[in-house]
Amino acid sequence: MIDYHLHVIAHGDRPMTVENILAYCEVAKKRGIRQMGITEHDRYLDDIDLAAFQKAREKSKDVELRLGIEIDFVSGAEERMDRDGSALPYDYVIGSVHRVGGEEVDQPLDRSIYEKMDAYDLYAAYYKNVRLAALSGRFDVLGHPDLIKIFKTFPDRDITPILEETADVVAESGIVVDVNAAGLRKPVGEVYPSRKFLEMFHRRNVPIVLSSDAHAPDQVGMGYETSVKLVRDVGYTEVVTFKDHERGTLPI
């Protein structure tokens, strides 16, 4: 099993030390995860200690470590995304949409964008950004592709055509989708992506990774009893792995 989207530094909660990385590995080992990818938010790029990561990778005997980064996709910020996405010897790069019109959609202390915009228009704009991220060619993995549902604000109108269009674009792009259990810890209380959206990806043969989006050691692999069952029920039998941007697979 893998956990390919998680944060040691998180939101500046702790430094990237060998000891802190190995604390994540210890939980991973206990939960049956044999390959773990550390993917800090790009805004903490300067805090990533590559030497500590490399030393922890040497010390970790039971859990293989991979280095990634989570890039905040913003149309128009191509120079920043290219710079951050190539700054270190990453095994893979995650591209995630957290913003619409420059405003964050997942900020619990400021949900004003949900009041400023009609829900359908907000969803349409969000998924347009998801499609742009997928087509940009900058990313190996598309992070939590329906994050917009985080606070359980849903449009009155059917968004199925938007999801279908987005699934088509994702399949065309060849990007891998992040099946991310963090939504289970949020108000929405479900995996990213939803079963309906995941089924669309599966029908189009879109490959997946599994992740917890842990921001603390005890969250590694959290929610996998739900997310792993979901992907198996939908029909997935394997996950993608990365090393130096080269893909492999592991059975689920």
Question: How would you characterize the overall build of this protein?
Answer:
34% of the residues lie in helices and 21% in strands. The chain has 252 residues and is an alpha/beta fold. The chain has one domain (2-251): TIM Barrel (Alpha-Beta Barrel). The strands form 3 sheets. Strands 1-2-3-4-7-8-9 form a 7-stranded parallel β-sheet. A hairpin with a 2-residue loop joins strand 5 (99-100) and strand 6. The longest helix is centred in the middle third of the chain and has 17 residues, at 119-135. The protein starts with a strand and ends with a strand.
What key phrases describe this protein's structure?
seven-stranded parallel beta sheet, 252 residues, alpha/beta, TIM Barrel, 8 helices, two-stranded antiparallel sheet, single chain
Any idea what the CATH superfamily is called? Answer: Metal-dependent hydrolases
Residue windows where pLDDT falls under 50 for at least 5 positions = none
Rg? 17 Å
Strand order of the largest sheet: 1-2-3-4-7-8-9
| Structural class label | alpha/beta
The portion of residues forming beta strands comes to 15-25%
Apparent shape:
globular
Overall helicity: 25-40%
Counting DSSP H or I runs of 4 or more residues, the number of helices is 8
CATH level-two architecture: Alpha-Beta Barrel
CATH topology-level name: TIM Barrel
> How many E strands?
11
Distance between the termini: 7 Å
Secondary-structure element pattern, one letter each: EHEHEHEEEHHEHEHEHEE
CATH class: Alpha Beta
**Average of pLDDT:** 97
How does the major sheet shape up? 7 strands, parallel
Into how many domains do the coordinates divide? 1
